[in-house]
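Lab meeting prep.
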Amino acid sequence: MCVGIPLKVLEIQDKEAIGEISGVKRKIRIDFLPNLNIGDYVMTHAGFALDLIKQEDANEIIEAIKLVNSKI
């Protein structure tokens, strides 16, 4: 099963960015999203930003992840 994780973009440098979810920062590749801006939300998988998503959608997914984690 593949799980995509939404991240908020904090920094951009060339083809890499720093994204954050719940205080955890990760370096991601942004090759597929050439018009990405700081503050955008992206869906990531395996270290790559795959698609832009709305902040509301990102927040909904993050809440679902927290709910699942609380059940484990």
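Slide two material, second protein:
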Amino acid sequence: MPKGRIIKALSGFYYIIYNGEMIQCRGRGVFRQRKVSPLVGDFVEFEFSGQKEGYILSIEERVNELVRPPIANVDQAIIVASLKEPDLSLNLLDKFLVMVEANSIRPLLFFTKKDLLNEEETEILQRKLSYYSDIGYSIRFLSTKTDDIADHIATFVDGKVSVFAGQSGVGKSSLLNALVPDLELETNQISESLGRGKHTTRHVELIPFKQGLIADTPGFSALDFAELELEMLPDCFPEFTERKSECKFRGCMHLKEPKCAVKEAVAKDEILEERYNNYVQFVEEIKQRKPRY
């Protein structure tokens, strides 16, 4: 039985690379009955006729999967955040980091539009962002000249399956245009009235690049934690995980418990207070979400 990888999903069809050719497939009804949907990035078994059309028969077990964007078996997430126009939101950045940490995906942080900051803004943001570097995240600062950094980014995506994620309007499609000029991905100017980018990417697709695959994903300015259990949240913060053995209580949620090593680290400025406050907010969001049936 032939096997391949789904590299695009569009309008109920799944496009699979097999022996250098693109096979258009539909999912069997059994997937709908089991409430399982094939995802871009899935390795699948399928059958097809000589017309390069067929049906997906089975899906191999996934290493990981993301809900938004819907993609599976990702090696790393390149999180693109703007420093200006739109302004950087550490709250949104931390949500993206929680998403990828929960799925054991390596995050790489790229901050764009550095050249639009004045001296004071640069100093404030660099001080905050140096914290993320200190806790182990790989960080790169980019200007608005995306063509100049294409080669730089290429070294990080070669040989990997990479998903590009980030707030609308931060330049993800522009970065991919610089990497793969033939794509001619649609880009849009920032909507001044909304203060955020317009949604320009309409489907998820894996694009062959050197020895790897890269995906452009829909931009979004809001995320939820629909798939994340409350008990998992503390372990999505590396600096919390590092200290949890020092907490008095096993399973400490780092909220109102006495002798909590995380809260003590916040008081000593060893943990960024803004990031801890984001964590507390995320706890409340998970507690207040509507139950799933």
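Talking points for slide two:
The longest helix spans residues 119-134.
The helical segments are 29-33, 90-102, 119-134, 150-157, 172-179, 238-241, 261-267, 273-288.
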